[in-house]
Amino acid sequence: MSTFEPKIVAFCCEQSGLPAAEMAKTLKLKMPDNLELVPVPCSGRIETLYLLKALESGADGVVVFACYEENCKYLQGNVRLKSRVGYAKQIMTKIGLEQERLEIFHVATNSGVKFSEFLLQKADQLRPLGPNLGKIA
Amino acid sequence: MIKAEQKPFEEILEYLAPYNKILLSGCGACVTVCHAGGEKDGALLASALRMARQKIGKPLEIIESTPARQCEPEFAQELSDTIGLVEAVLSVSCGIGVQTLARLFPAMQIFPGVNTLFMGETVEHGVWEERCQACGDCILEKTAGICPIARCAKQLLNGPCGGSSNGKCEIKRETDCAWQLIFDRSKALGQLHRLTEIIPAKQWGVQSRDSGPRRIVREDLKV
Amino acid sequence: MKSGSNLEKVFVNGHFAVTSELGPPKGNDVSVIKRKVDFLRGYVDAVNVTDNQTAIVRMSSIATSALAVQMGIEPIMQMVTRDRNRIAMQSDLFGATALGIKNIICLTGDHHTFGNQVNAKNVHDLDSVQLINMVKTMRDEKTLMGGEEKIEGDIDMFIGGAANPFADPFEFRALRTAKKAAAGVDFIQTQCIYDMERFKEWMKMIRDLGVHEKVHIMAGITPLKSAGMARYMAKNVAGITIPDALIDRMAKAAKGADEGIKICIEQIQEVQEIEGVHGVHIMAIEWEHMIGKITEMAGLLPRPKVE
């Protein structure tokens, strides 16, 4: 049996993703084993480069927890993020990395349950794909 | 400024196939502005290249460096130490920067990572359009500040042609007809009568590249 | 006389001129040219020989024009600035006049990306206005462009140009034709007319500028074959406008082709009444065999014999 547990890097917007993570922790909800949270002041702060670098430096999957589209505190931050994720996915196609390894998930501050559920589903989705062969660990 | 676009990823991978350690050299000027190859976009390309090569079991070591202007020897020379450590260079500066490196480092293979496309303007963030073709004899004074050499597909000096329709060019419907723009602006400036003057044929051979690569010499500046 | 061509003499003698168009073959099949010449001979005063029209490679207009002369019909050699620089064009003018070609029409040409050699290098050394001026210089100053080099022989050409009253900006179109007149053009052929009102407006502007007294204007007419053709042209060809009323008329007709000819005759008769219009240029695209019938029905036959 394979013991591969996908490493997930989750960028968490401090306005939505991070409070949701806190809530999941308070409620003692189950989370994937190999998880790293990266707080950001706004999902719009995430540059395309960070998404690629996360994969390059060891992530098997990258997730961005961002506010719902009309709810961005900084107005267009999550809209910019969407374009950048789109661009990163184009690059991933050229490298030959599966599209499932990068995804945006929209949450609000009280989405503790959704937070943990999504991460568990993502881990399930990534497990059969195996490790990210592009990583330089 | 000069506008460029990154070359297809597959083409770059092909250039780098024989090498295991390269320098990726960006440029802090034009290609940074049009997001083809400055520090950030160079880093993105480097990350993608590393992962692509890792995947096929042929790791590629990339040193990243971005001189302020790759076409200036004083700045390009800053790369000399790093050049000694690598097998080849991928330059994401415009074609000029690539050639400057080729001249300064004759024993080093220099590959172009972008296609240099045109001299142009930023229309809006993320959109750039051609505005000048360096014809060597600027006639913008006659054409209300709009260049027909760069912006008219037929380079008419006494346009518009019969294919100008609703202000758009018949070649590409998204492109503005340069002569419609010249007409509108001349009218706004009260200068419409100037467009009835015939602009004579251009001296392509003397001022433009049709007589080979051009050169400017300022004796007062030479040391 | 500028060149003493048949077309020039027809104008000078005050007759209403008739010209048409001949597209050379996509190869060197001379029988194609002969067939088209046979359809046109006797029904027109001269015929335009197109120059790689729509940037599709065809037999050169100089070669086809020379063959036309041999076949007994007077050509108007089209020359576009798209494919040749000033060296080639002046050289072709030496050759054309030596081969008995006496009329030229100077155009910029359709952009090469429309044709079948899209990766060609675009030339456009000159534009149509500069080309007209170049031919005039060769004819009247007897020198090459630049005025320095003397020409051995006489380059006697009757110089034509094109005008499009239906392109934009409308306000400038007549002024541009005036520019061509100032550059030395002798006659002008317009793009095909469907919007008669707009053409009449343009002619008024031409008259106000006095251009009709310096230059012979020929109205361009293209017979419609079907409502489908009308809709296609209206949608796809830049610089052609077709009023809805005309498209409806074609759509409602029992036989589109017959209605198209009827409209064509009406248009010819209407333009003959407009002051300043000295002729018609009938472009029967891939319908050359109808020219005889059209000119007959429009009362344009027989063509005048001029000395």
Percent of residues in beta strands of chain C: 5-15%
Name the shape of chain C in a single word.
Answer: globular
Radius of gyration of chain B: 22 Å
Q: Overall mean pLDDT score of chain B? A: 95
**Helix segment tally of chain C:** 12
Interface with most residues:
B-C, 28 and 35 residues
Per CATH, which architecture of the largest domain in chain B? 3-Layer(aba) Sandwich
Q: Topology as H/E string of chain C?
A: HEHEHEHEHEHEHHEHHHEH
Provide a descriptive summary of the structure in words:
The complex is a heterotrimer of chains A (137), B (223) and C (307). Chain A has helices spanning 17-26, 48-56, 77-95, 112-126, and strands spanning 8-13, 35-40, 61-67, 102-107. Chain A has 137 residues and is an alpha/beta fold. The mean pLDDT of chain A is 96. Chain B has two domains: 2-117, Rossmann fold; 135-210, no CATH class. In chain B, 39% of the residues are buried. Chain B has helices spanning 9-16, 30-33, 39-55, 73-76, 80-83, 95-104, 148-151, 178-188, 204-207; strands at 2-6, 21-25, 61-65, 88-91, 109-112, 114-124, 127-132. The longest helix of chain B has 17 residues, at 39-55. Helices cover 42% and strands 15% of the residues of chain C. The mean pLDDT of chain C is 95. Chain C has an eight-stranded parallel beta barrel with strand order 1-2-3-4-5-6-7-8, surrounded by six helices. Chain C has helices spanning 6-12, 30-40, 61-70, 86-98, 128-141, 170-183, 196-208, 211-214, 227-236, 244-252, 256-272, 291-297, and strands spanning 17-22, 46-49, 75-80, 103-107, 158-163, 187-192, 216-221, 277-282. Chain C is globular. The chains are: A alpha/beta (137), B alpha/beta (223), C alpha/beta (307). At the B-C interface, helix 8 of B face helix 5 and helix 6 of C.
Write a concise synopsis of the structure shown.
The complex is a heterotrimer of chains A (137), B (223) and C (307). Chain A has 137 residues and is of the alpha/beta class. Chain A is built from 4 helices and 4 strands, in the order βαβαβαβα.
